[in-house]
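Postdoc handover notes: sequence design on the structure in folder B. Input tokens:
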């Protein structure tokens, strides 16, 4: 991998444990349609949310290595759990060994930068997986930017399985959505901004909106992450020049390609979409 590191031109790698990252990819494609994208969903091992730090780090590193091997100069962890648990370790321990000219970015920092400009009461709620809430990443990042901000986390363990199993429209989903919203608003009624801190949750947005008190702003990440990426590429022309521009999107999954294709088509509104199955750790054939 090292020999060609200065020449690598390729797509933007987008990684998630499953389908959730497609909500980010969709917005990236909308705002930055000129680039090529390579999406990888580790569907065979999703959900990540309740795994330990070690396991999430190991799985995420394998995914980043696979996307690097396939030529991505830049990888976006379109997964809060991976961003919270693995991003910093990969940046600090692995990037220099793998290829110091490439970059791995997450979704937490761009979200936090946006939220600081939105909250008036300085009481912010974070709905996320158990792993993300326990990591306290949102808390730390928000307080770095504004030490006065009060952050309340709420783990929503059933929400990802509801999405992954296409139950996000079912009446049963209302019960779990209402339960978590009332829990978090009960913990801090002054919350005026709620972060959907998991890339799967935008699929539940229509339900979430039903139960969030009026006046509370819901922050869904796709748009903000894409805007910050556009910004990053303007500030880093050396990276921008290494991104291939053909407007293509390819999909990889660790589960069956047919299963992924059927489901991802719904997320992406694309009937032509096709996918390929790979195994992690990835070894080139
Ligand atoms: N989509 C991921 C996130 O943003 C996690 C889902 C999972 O638990 O795998 O946190």
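Designed sequence:
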């Amino acid at each position: 991998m090292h020999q060609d590191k200065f020449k690598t031109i390729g797509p933007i790698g987008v990684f998630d444990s499953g389908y959730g990252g497609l909500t980010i990819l969709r917005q990236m494609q909308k705002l930055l349609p000129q680039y090529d994208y390579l999406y990888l969903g580790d569907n065979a091992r999703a959900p990540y949310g309740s795994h330990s730090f070690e396991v999430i780090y190991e799985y995420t590193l394998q995914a980043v290595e696979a996307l690097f091997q396939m030529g991505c100069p830049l990888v976006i962890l379109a997964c809060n759990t991976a961003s919270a648990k693995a991003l910093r370790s990969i940046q600090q321990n692995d990037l220099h060994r793998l290829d110091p000219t490439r970059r791995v970015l997450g979704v937490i920092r761009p979200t936090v930068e946006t939220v600081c400009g939105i909250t008036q009461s300085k009481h912010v709620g974070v709905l996320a997986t158990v792993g993300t809430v326990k990591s306290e990443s949102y808390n730390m990042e928000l307080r770095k930017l504004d030490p006065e901000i009060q952050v309340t986390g709420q783990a929503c363990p059933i929400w990802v399985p509801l999405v992954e199993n296409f139950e996000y429209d079912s009446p049963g989903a209302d019960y779990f959505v209402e339960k978590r919203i009332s829990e978090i608003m009960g913990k801090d009624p002054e919350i005026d901004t709620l972060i959907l801190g998991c890339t799967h949750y935008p699929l539940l947005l229509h339900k979430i909106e039903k139960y969030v008190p009026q006046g509370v702003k819901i922050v869904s990440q796709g748009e903000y992450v894409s805007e910050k990426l556009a910004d990053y590429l303007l500030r880093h022309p050396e990276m921008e020049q290494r991104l291939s521009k053909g407007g293509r999107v390819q999909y990889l999954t660790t589960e069956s390609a047919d299963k992924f294709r059927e489901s991802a088509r719904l997320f992406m509104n694309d009937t032509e979409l096709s996918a390929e199955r790979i195994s992690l750790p990835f070894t080139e054939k």
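Context for whoever picks this up: Residues 5-106+223-277 form a domain with the Rossmann fold fold (CATH 3.40.50.1860). Don't rerun without checking with the PI first.
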